[in-house]
Write a structure and sequence with these properties.
This protein has 14 helices and eight strands. It is an alpha/beta fold.
């Protein structure tokens, strides 16, 4: 069954009525095609109206939708000859970050991503997409491997943030994230990052210090979650909606602030309603961004990437 968010209840009711009428047709042979058609048009109109005016908090909920395509869905759909690589060669393997080699539209690439999982078992296996130091050291290893073999890097980011447990801190979480960011900035090959759901804090930017940072229309990207921000500022998670407004975490806000490079439109009602169309749109945008980067030499790539990030947040002084 389709999962509906709180603000989608009127849409859920209409789609529920459509399903009831269809079952009536199947059971009794009654022709209700006209009525179904009218309800479907009404549901589509309501869906369009609702998604045209989502608040930042509602976009956060859409970005976290349990049916939204995850990192492994993009890898399965966009990467052929996929060969996963594991481990950081120091401590162990972290399933929250998936990495490997494959082909994107026939071109050999290195791929990284944070995987949340699609059901209880896979979510526990991937630690809900919250990586530990060994995950970021694995990411760094794969980026350095890509540099040695001249492979463009593609990353798919979907994480609430790095794992905050004491064992992660004991194993050097901050240093591992910093080194992963450093590896991305220093990569001598083209690097395209795509925020497909949540982009949370350093745990996200560790895989997104790229030449081009793309973001899905209803994804979010922020230094902290709205709930975390609300807890710090107001000591009340009920203020999460207000915090989401203040954080400027939507794709539109971040594009306007020049913190990302492009917004990828989602199917009406979000990526979860038409995953195939979403994968096709992401593939096209990645290909369009990758093509002009391929002829550039390593020094030019590094310098442009460095300048891009140094420019963020800079204000002209009169």
């Amino acid at each position: 069954m389709r999962h509906f968010l709180e603000f989608e209840k009127p849409i859920a009711e209409l789609e529920g009525k459509i399903e009831e009428l269809r079952r009536t047709t199947d059971a009794g042979g009654i022709d209700v095609a006209d009525e179904v058609g009218k309800l479907r048009d009404k549901a589509q109109s309501l869906l369009r109206t609702t998604y045209a005016k989502l608040t930042p908090w509602q976009k956060t909920l859409v970005a976290r939708h349990p049916d939204r395509p995850k990192c492994l869905d993009y890898i399965r759909g966009l990467i052929s000859e996929w060969t996963p690589l594991a481990g950081d060669r120091a401590f162990g393997d972290d399933a929250a970050i998936v990495a490997g080699l494959g082909r994107f539209q026939g071109r050999s690439v290195a791929v990284l991503g944070t995987e949340k999982g699609n059901d209880t078992e896979s979510r526990v296996k991937h630690n809900f997409g919250m990586a530990k130091p060994e995950g970021y050291r694995k990411a760094r290893r794969i980026m350095e491997l890509a540099g040695r073999f001249g492979l463009p890097i593609l990353s798919f980011v979907d994480t609430a943030g790095a794992f905050p447990g004491i064992e992660a801190e004991a194993r050097g979480q901050a240093e591992a994230i910093a080194r992963s960011i450093e590896a991305g900035l220093d990569a001598p090959v083209p690097f395209i990052a795509t925020i497909i759901g949540e982009g949370g804090s350093g745990g996200a930017i560790a895989l997104a210090s790229a030449d081009r940072v793309l973001m899905l229309e209803h994804a979010v990207y922020s230094v902290i979650s709205p709930e975390g921000c609300a807890s710090i500022l107001w000591r009340d998670q009920a203020m999460a909606g207000t915090a989401a407004e203040a954080l400027k975490l939507t794709a539109e806000d971040l594009k306007r602030l020049a913190l990302i490079d492009a917004v990828i439109p989602e199917p009406m009602g979000g990526a979860h309603r038409d995953p195939e169309a979403m994968l096709a749109a992401v593939a096209k945008q990645i290909a369009d961004c990758l093509e002009p980067l391929l002829p550039l030499d390593p020094t030019t790539l590094r310098n442009r990437r460095r300048d891009k990030f140094l420019e963020m947040g800079r204000h002209a002084v009169a």
